[in-house]
Structures are given as structure tokens and as C-alpha cells.
Amino acid sequence: MARIVVVGGSLGGLRVTEGLYAAGWDGEVVVLSAEEHAPYTRPPLSKAALTAAPDLATLAFKQRPEAGRAEWRYGVSAVSCDLDARTLRLSDGTDLSWDGLVAATGVEARRLPEVVGTGGHVVRTYDDCRALQERLTTGTRLVVLGAGFIGSEIAATAVRLGCEVDVVALDDVPMQAPLGREVGAAIQRRHEREGVRFHLGRGIASFTCGTDATRVTLEDGTKVEGDVLVQAIGSAPATSWLAGNDLDLTDGLVCDNDLRIEGRRGVVAVGDVARFPNPLIDDVPRRVEHWQMPMDTARRAAATLLSDLTAAVVDTAPFAPLPSFWSDQYDLRVQSFGSLAVADRAEVLEGDLDDEAVVGYFRGDDLVGALLLGMPRQMVRVRKMVVAALAQRQECPRDRDAPAAGGAA
Amino acid sequence: MRVDVDMDVCQNYGQCVFAAPEVFDLDDAGDLVYQGEVDDASRTDVEAAVMACPVQAIAIPD
After folding, report:
1. Closest Cβ–Cβ partner in A292, A335, A379 for B52
2. Which ipTM was obtained for this model?
């Protein structure tokens, strides 16, 4: 019987498995899950799940019945893969051949080499969350390395739990790359009103980290001391198992618009590792680490695999999912639509950044995304506005030949 | 078909509104409102909403 192997047992792996069977696949599906847990939701791990002992039963995804038709191997990961021979070497020492392959390995939390083997935390998995949650009690002094979304959410959660929180980051404001300076600065002011202390725009000269004490010395001599250290310095796509296949692994897996990895038939990527061009934005392949992407990419990748491996007729419309993320910090919900990453300028369209606001993100004169700070009743309208603007750009692109901008203003 | 939303769990993320706008909406206060009984024609959309909900608050009981 023909076999599809899904490497990665989180949301993308689950949804592509369901999608394959729902779309008519009648062969085998084997899912390799590096973690010992059934697929679970990750967004709460840096928020609500840190406030009380996280409950895996609550976090686990409801699965469609189709998921049960697959063979799930927990605690097993892919060590290497030969794309020409269509074989995988697994962490349990066995080999597995395949007819179709799904790369759904996601991203791993980055760790500073100096912290490996010490008591320093990260927050990516349920086990990570649980380990940190046990340490976040009233009066704990927490040092957060990194001021992106995860670092900012952890800081907000911890300070509300009664911890003393210091955030150390190279950026000048929190969430600078995704949101831009002005919005980041406004969110920093909210954190500071809650009592979070920031040490930004400076590198680390040296630090020590143990289970119960951490001490960071910044380049300007500032010393930050705490009881617990958490690293929130970003993530890296988990692609090392595909090394040796002459693929570009510099930032995830380069896919065509149907999610085939470098155009190879029967080999697709889903979720955070998939770097694909989105015609809503432009023709530059990008990874998108947003909630909806594992679901959107899984649906498309399942259709592509069926088309490559069987005679199934598939959707030939361009794959153009709307990027969208949210973050909860204190009572503020931050919600985006569109691609803030390609904008060169941000402009407050409504409201006030220190209260509630709608911020437009522009590339040249084109609206490419929008961000809501609060303003829940504007959400549906703002999303429609972004969808309409992106659709109009697609029909008559003004800047087709313009180089992609590096990030938000 | 019936649609259930556990309003104690719902946090108004709005993902269901985008997946099945004919069934789910946000009211003027930004709170979720939805139809509990919908036409079978909406099943695919509602199933997408079930999967899209970040807090898994939506169920199709039948």
C-alpha cells in the first residue's frame, strides 16, 4: 500500500493527516511526533497556561475521526531523509520508506549556547511551559531575554502573577521587527505601567545562569539579577533532518505556491517551516508563523500530495491565505491582518496608541496590513478593509518590480 | 444541524467569523453572536470554524 509519512505531530501534521483522508487518500499515513504528547495548542503556553498548572487535556486538539486512521508514532523523530531514494532514518534506529512526504517539523526555540545545560528556560512545548509555570510565584525575580511576542507575553503574565520582571533585548522597543518602533514603544509603556523593567538596545557582555540564580551584565555595565531566566530569542525552523538533499535550508523549506518543496513531486511542507510565495503579497517565498497557517497550508498540501500521488483533480486557484496573528498582553488584544512584515511605514488610522487604535501598514502608497490595539468591534471591518486592499493590489500591482522591504517602519 | 459554542471558553478571537460569516458574527461590543441551528449547506464552513477556533469553544453536537 502506498505510504505518506508526515514528519511532525503538531497542528500542521494533524490537519494534513485529516485532510489527506478527508480528500480521499486510501493508503497509509504514518505520523512521526518528536513529542510524547498528542497534538496540543501552543498560543496559551506563553499566556493563560503559565498562570496555573497547564492541563494537557484542555490544551489537546479535538481531532476529526480521520486522524485515527493514521499510525501515530510518539517520541520518534526523523534523523535524516533521502529524497531521491524516498527513505527516512528515524531516531529509534529504524528506516521508513515513503511515497509521499510532508515536512511539518515546525520551529524550535533558539537557545544561547551559554544557557544550554543550565537552569535557563524556553517556552515552546507543553513541558517547557510546565517547567516555567512551577517557578512563577509571587516575588520571583524573572529575567526575560528577548522582547518579541513570546517574551512580551511571558513578561505580562509573570508580572500579573506578582513576579518582578526584567526584560533584556537587543531591539530598541518590544516587538520592533513585526510592529514597528512607534507601536512597540506604546506597548512598552503599557508594560512599564504594570511594573515591567526594560533593558533594551544593548547586547549582553556576560552572564551566568543557574537553576536558582541568574546574573546578566550588559555592554554598558548594567547588571540585571534574577532567580529565573527565560530565553525568548526567537525560533529556528527544524530542517536539519533534510540536510544532504541539496535543498536551500537557510530559512525553512522553499516551496512553490502548491507547497511542494523546491518543486519536487510528492514532497510538501506545511506550517511554520513552509516558505512559500503568497500572491496576496508578492512572489517572495516567506515563512509565516501564524495560528491559521498550519490549517491553511495543510489543506493545500494535502490536495497537492493527492494530485501528485493519485489521479485526483485538485484546486488550481492560487494559494493566497490571509496572514493574521494576535497577541494578548494584560487586557490588551493585539490583532493583525495582512503582511506587516513587508511594510515600510505604519500610520495610526483611528484612535490613540496609548488607548485603543487601528494602525495601517503601508508599502509605498499601498495598504498591506493593519493592526488593532483593542477595538474589538472594528475587527471585522478592518479585516475586510485589508482583504479589499490586497485584492486590489493583486489586480493592478503598482510595485511589482519594487524590491521587498525589510520590515515595518 | 446544531452549533454549540461554550461561551465560558470563547474569548472572541473572531476566527469563526472569518471561517463561517453566515453563522458567526461579533456584535457591537465585540462579543460573539451565532446561530445555534443552521442549514446543512454551512457544514463545511462550520467545520472550518471548529478547527480555526484557538480555544476550541465550538462543537457540532450531532
Report:
1. A292
2. 0.91
